[in-house]
């Protein structure tokens, strides 16, 4: 059986920086509250007319990743595109990437697993490579949150957290050596689907009905979150799924060279770090600059950590995510 390894990484964030003070001009919030509860100082938002969209940002990140993998678009055998904020209701972003990058008529699969989307996508790509079916798979996580958030005080517990951006990884067949993706671990618990959700527009919540039936105060086409409930589950599931991955590979917490947690909230990352007794050097966070970019957060953070020389050959790198669904997962990598 083959194994897979990451051969190229890239990320893209829009130029437009939105600070906490900028948000406090739109809603009743403030820099102190946001920093204390989430660690976020600023995030990036697409600006009208800057040409960005979820798929466009995905292509920008993917172009860098392909370049670093020393591959051309025609070398890619499959696209896996993770997002909760696609440009269109259908089709998904994968086919847009295929078109924009001028790729062959390769398969394009869209993944809808929110904050866990990148790990789900990585796992799918890993399986296709392990079976020998494909050699190079492009995995993208991209989000345009700012296009669909409630920037009034009503939506402040959600809208201050999220930011726009994209990250991408090329997963390739490992021709030699035993490094690469060691294992991936995926979970879901639909009982909590409404705790962090965007109900419509959907077939159950069609736009004309939403407008007719809902007073302006309670529009279900903005995301809603039961923050404390999500937080409590996140800290349990993060720790669980990291341990599950370590156990599967006979590794211990002390063997982790770098943990890249999904950037949901700096307090969640710090809680996990404390719980697992990891040092500051063993955990990478960049939510301070970008906010929570959902499916894009892990590939953006992984790329930055790698660019900063914080990940070296042979290192044990652990990726872990938790989010809406609930869904959660981890990936254990020997770099
Ligand atoms: O990535 C996907 C997974 N998502 C997560 O993991 C998010 C998990 N949850 C969280 O990160 C936190 O729960 C939040 C950051 C969303 C909220 O922090 P919290 O400490 O749980 O605050 P809270 O929701 O309990 O609200 C506390 C107070 C409330 O006011 P009262 O009722 O105490 O008067 C809120 O209305 O803070 C108020 N509040 C705000 N105040 C200023 C909520 N949002 C804001 C805001 N600015 N943006």
Structural overview:
The chain is of the alpha/beta class. It folds into 2 domains: 3-177, Thiolase/Chalcone synthase (Peroxisomal Thiolase, Chain A, domain 1, 3-Layer(aba) Sandwich), CATH 3.40.47; 181-334, Thiolase/Chalcone synthase (Peroxisomal Thiolase, Chain A, domain 1, 3-Layer(aba) Sandwich), CATH 3.40.47. The chain is built from 11 helices and 13 strands. The protein has helices at residues 20-24, 31-38, 54-68, 93-100, 117-130, 156-159, 207-213, 227-248, 266-276, 287-290, 297-307; strands at 4-12, 17-19, 42-44, 78-82, 108-111, 136-143, 165-173, 180-188, 196-197, 224-225, 258-261, 316-323, 327-334. A 5-stranded mixed beta sheet has the order 1-7-6-4-5, sandwiched between helices. Helix 3 (54-68) crosses helix 4 (93-100) and helix 8 (227-248) crosses helix 9. The longest helix is centred in the last third of the chain and has 22 residues, at 227-248. The radius of gyration is 19 Å and the shape is globular. The protein starts with a strand and ends with a strand. The model has no long low-confidence stretch (mean pLDDT 96). Bound molecules: oxa(dethia)-CoA. Residues 29, 33-34, 37-38, 115, 156-157, 160-161, 196, 227-228, 230-231, 234, 264-265, 268, 292, 323 line the site of oxa(dethia)-CoA.
Summed up, what is this model?
33% of the residues lie in helices and 22% in strands.
| Proportion of residues in β-strands | 15-25%
CATH homologous superfamily assignment of the largest domain: Thiolase/Chalcone synthase
Radius of gyration: 19 Å
* Average residue-wise pLDDT: 96
How many strands, what sense, and barrel or not for the largest sheet? 5 strands, mixed
Give the tally of structural domains.
2
């Amino acid at each position: 059986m083959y194994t897979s390894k990451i051969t190229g990484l890239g990320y893209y964030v829009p130029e437009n920086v939105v600070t906490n003070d900028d948000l406090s001009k739109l809603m009743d919030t403030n820099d102190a509250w946001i920093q204390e509860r989430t660690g976020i100082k600023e995030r990036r938002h697409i600006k009208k007319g800057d040409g960005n969209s979820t798929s466009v940002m995905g292509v920008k990140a993917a172009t860098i990743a392909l370049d670093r993998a020393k591959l051309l678009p025609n070398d890619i055998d499959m696209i896996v595109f993770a997002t909760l904020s696609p440009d269109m209701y259908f089709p998904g972003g994968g086919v847009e990437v295929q078109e924009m990058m001028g790729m062959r008529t390769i398969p394009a699969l869209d993944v809808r697993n929110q904050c866990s989307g990148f790990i789900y996508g990585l796992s799918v790509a890993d399986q296709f490579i392990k079976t020998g079916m494909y050699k190079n798979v492009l995995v993208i996580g991209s989000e345009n949150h700012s296009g669909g958030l409630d920037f009034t005080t009503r939506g402040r517990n959600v809208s201050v957290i999220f930011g726009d951006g994209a990250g991408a990884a090329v997963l390739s067949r490992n021709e030699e050596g035993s490094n690469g993706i060691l294992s991936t671990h995926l979970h879901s618990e639909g009982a909590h689907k409404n705790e962090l959700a965007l109900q419509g527009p959907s077939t159950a919540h069609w736009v004309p009905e939403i407008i007719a039936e809902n007073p302006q105060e309670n529009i279900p086409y903005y995301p809603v979150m039961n923050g404390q409930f999500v937080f409590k589950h996140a800290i349990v599931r993060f720790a669980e799924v990291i341990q599950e991955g370590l156990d599967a590979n006979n590794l211990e917490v002390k063997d982790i060279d770098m943990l890249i947690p999904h950037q949901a909230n700096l307090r969640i990352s710090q809680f996990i770090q404390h719980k697992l007794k990891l040092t500051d050097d063993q955990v990478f966070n960049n939510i301070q600059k970008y906010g929570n970019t959902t499916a894009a957060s892990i590939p953006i953070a992984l790329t930055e950590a790698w660019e900063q020389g914080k990940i070296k050959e042979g290192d044990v790198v652990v990726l872990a995510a938790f989010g809406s669904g609930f869904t959660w997962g981890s990936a254990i990598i020997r770099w």
